[in-house]
User: Fold this.
Amino acid sequence: MGKAAKFIAIGAVAIVFALFIGWWQVDGPGAGPVSGERPLPLTAMDFNLTDQDGADVSPASLIGQPSLVFFGFTYCPDVCPTTLSDISGWLDDLGTEAEDLNTILITVDPDRDTVETLAEYVSYFHPQIQGWTGSEDQIADAAEGFRATYEKVEGADGGYTMNHTAGVFLFDATGRFVSIIDYHEPREFAVPKIRRAMQDRAEGAES
Amino acid sequence: MFKVFAKGFLGLAVALVMNLPTMSAAQDASNDTLISVENPWARASIGMSRPGGAYLTIRNDGKDTVSLVGLRAEISGMASVHETRTNSDGVSSMTPAEDIAIPAGGTVALEPGGYHAMLMQLQSPLVEGETFPLTLLFSDGTELEVNVPILGVGARGPEG
Assistant:
């Protein structure tokens, strides 16, 4: 009897420990965004870009509402349409709540992704999704703030592709970084994460 | 010894019968490999300047490993298999894939975020609702032509 109780106690401790490790790595202080560096708060970022309608935008444009921000380029046939489709699905799940969510694609390929190109591209996805572009320097400034990386890779056919950070950055309405939704994260995990960031907004408004 | 042979033949015969409905017309019958393709789909393209992407699952019901070594499609001036990888820093990259081995009795999926058929130099746009022929080239000489249905720009899988 005493032996059994001991076993159960050890098992319980092991389970609690495993859960704690999991929480630490996934949601807790140990959750590591890209390269172990978290994006800055939006309020500490400094960049200027142009949106799909030709308007000037900056990190300040995002304050006041929670935001989803991700990097990509429209000439990629796989990751980008998949990410945009996934995000469109999350926004569909959120329904009218999605209207309170800034959803921004920042291109890492400004040579090909002009304002007009991005405007057409994002029009095929959820209407809430915006496309921001700028000069190469402006894109570099933006990526720096998000601690995102990208790199041009020449292909054999004379064309090129872009390697880039594929996660979706989530900020609350005050501009505080909340979490990253990994590329390909299932919807049942992504949507609650977004809801949590939107809740932070309500709490932020009260305080 | 004879029993083992007989079992092998029986297995092959069963595999043959089971695969008849899914075998494509273009199947090369000169060998005993049995390759079939399931759930092909592509996303509609926005114009012709961007590469298109197509996905499918390859099943090998033969006795030997077979590799997918190339693609051919009239709609694309340059079709090849590419692979998307995401490293531990969360950075995605896309590179031409090596030959893809499909083990005997196994399947390999070309699906979003992994392997995909990259259709460069589109000769005409991929229009939602239409289909186009795509030929898969295998290491044993098999050439398998499949008709790929074109879904919406924002499709997430073979169901749309």
Remarks:
- Residues 69 and 104 of chain A are 5 Å apart (CA to CA).
